[in-house]
Amino acid sequence: MAIQLRNILKSFFNTGDRPSEDQFSDVVDSFVHQSEDKASTAEIQAGTNNTKYVTPAGAKVSVQTFAPVKTVNGIAPVAGDVAINTGGGTVVGSTELGVVKFFTGTSSSTNIFHLKLPHSLALHNAMFHFEAKGYVYNATDIIDVVWVGYCYKNAGILKNPKTEVIRSTAVTAGQYVGSDNHIYLWLKVPNTYYCSFKVDSIKVGNGFQVYEGDIEVIVSAQAQL
What domain of life (predicted)? Predict the structure, then answer.
């Protein structure tokens, strides 16, 4: 009694032939039995049996056992949620989205949003590129600002800075060196009530990538800190 290929099994039934008992046994042994030949859950999870068939339900168990999704882009899902890091890494041109996410419900026409960068004239020769986008609800205006510059430790200056305010008639912005030698970006809106914005970082030149939590947002009426 043995498992045979189909062309051999067919030859048992050629015209004029009468299959023997052993040949009938080969026919039975060569076909899959729905119950006897189905892999059990234990066999699927063991992953060693190579003779039994697996149903779609069994395949699901196999994937859950041998290929569970534990992390996505190096981030472990929390409470069943999948978190995806859409950042492009640390090569020049890589973008890190939402390094700042800010909202305030406070109403003020004098407060300024100061963004304290990790860049310090005491520590870094590093270029930077940041872009803010958001909504100034109380002024019916759009926040769309780009800051570029060079934190130049060797000369102790903020070199070649430029700030561009786009698609806005009321938002103002700029950058400066703070009293603590850190580079600050600033952004002012007509009224801060229900103002929300986010900041993205692009790695440029000899700069370093900035991530969420690296930039501190300070709300103050002072022009500089």
Answer: Bacteria
CA distance 76 to 164: 37
Q: Tokens for 183?
A: 């580079």
Helix (H, G, I), strand (E, B) or coil at 64: helix
Per-residue pLDDT tens over the stretch 24-82: 676 656 665 666 667 777 776 677 676 666 677 766 776 667 666 666 666 666 665 65
Judged by DSSP in three states, 44 sits in helix
Question: Which residue, among 121, 123, 115, 125, has the nearest Cα to 147 in the 3D structure?
Answer: 115
Going by C-beta distance under 8 Å and a sequence separation of 6 or more, which residues neighbour residue 209?
87, 89, 90, 94, 96, 201, 203
Which letter does DSSP use for residue 137 in this model?
G
Please give the full DSSP string across 76-115, using - where no structure is assigned.
--BTTBPP------SSTT-EEEEEEEEEE----SS-EEEE
For the whole model, what pTM was predicted? Answer: 0.63
Tell me which DSSP letter residue 39 carries: P
* Residue ranges, CATH 2.60.40.1680, the chain: 95-220
Closest C-alpha among 50, 29, 31, 54 to residue 41: 54
> How many C-beta atoms surround the C-beta of residue 47 within 10 A?
11
pLDDT tens, residue by residue, 132-188 = 999 999 999 999 999 999 999 999 999 999 999 998 889 999 999 999 999 999 999
CATH class of the domain defined by 95-220 = mainly beta
- E-strand ranges in 93-179 read 95-104, 112-120, 125-136, 141-152, 157-165, 172-177
